[in-house]
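Contributing new records

If you add data, match the layout below exactly. Sequence lines come first and carry their own label; structure lines follow with theirs. Keep one chain per record. Anything else will be rejected by the validation script.
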Amino acid sequence: MRNRWHLLLLTLSFLILSCSKDDGATAYNDYCYIKSVTLGTVKRTIEKRDRKDRTIIINTISTTFSGSAFAMTIDQRNNIIENRDSLPYGSQLSAVLATINFDGSMVSYREKGSESGWTAYNSTDSLNLTKPLELYTVSNDNQSHRIYTFKVNVHKQEGDSLYWDMCENEVAPLSDMIDMKAFILDNKLMVLGEKTSGIILAERSGVEAQGSWEESATTGLPLTADLQTLHQHAGTLYLSTSEGNILSSTDARTWQQVGSPHTAALTLVEKTADYFYAISENKLLRSADAIDWSHEEKLDTKADSLPAYGIRALTMQQANGNSRIVMVGQNNDYPNNVVWNKMWNQCELEMDAEWYYFPFSFDNKIPCPRLGFLNLLPYDGKCIAFGGASADNKHKALDLMYISEDYGITWRPSSDLHLPIELEGIEGCIASTVDKNNYIWIITNAQVWRGRLNRLGFAQQ
């Protein structure tokens, strides 16, 4: 009996010792890597630029945003941690909380390139991220370590600001033009303009900040050509004349007739891949070859709301794949510009799409203003308009830029995008275009200006 008790006690002792050993055991490994990094709340200082007469007033606004919206990418091969989508301009990085998830025993940090000691990472302590840091990780078995470079990228310019530079002044080929139209062809800035000697072509050497100009004569382009009807498609230029002709050119110097003359005066509205659109005798026309013209019957209202003169139009490709023509122009029965749209998608034939009129109403009190030398451009997925003095004398030339985010229904004076202050109130014709680098070019009074919304120049990651 005694031997049995001794055996039982030995068995219990062995079990107790075994449990104690298991409870105290630690599984050590050589893992040491950072899994993720997330920024906390980031302070931001914004300079709000407001225009008053010929002065830019800068107001400073302090705000915050969530840094978690800007993902930190970890390159485990090269040990680099950074955000590919840069933080907004004005972000304050001197004190930012960061959540670092890692596998290992510890993480410590110091400024990259510093010879000072390491500081143990604590999720409740803010980090100074104005300069890159080194993150030092150690494995649980203390046999391995790894050093990452951690940097936070911030935009160096305010993304939603538009700044202008005068590229040239007193350009001789641009002097004394009483009408002109600007466009980009073969990666060069070109201007067709009317002078007393006829219609000439002013050609710039390129679309860089600095360039030189030369003047060329044109052939086949009569003084009856309406330069404001110039449209470009697939590298070919098209415009109409007061006699009802459609002319085309591939180099802007030599022009030839397309199709046959129309039976009445005709104003070219737009050229798409499949059709010419024009207005003649208060009717909207369509033709595939500029020979046979048919009436656009699908109008959502009466044709007496169509623009009669001062017509500007552009074709835009929407983000959802739809194509849309925006037509703006003047009609003497309306105090502001009238706006029409035609939209079609990949499942609908262009010829079957209806034209819609956007009326001025009590619900829409910000229509497109009637401006002299109206310029209409597609920019940043929106329509922008600007020009000379308004017909009601409430606005000077080039004092405001009007933005439409709904393809012409409403036109809101922009409080963020400002035109060159030096051009406010200038007299004479105004021409503009947009190049492949998203620069807006303005040509007036023999001056050449260019500007770009900063974020459209940021490198795409």
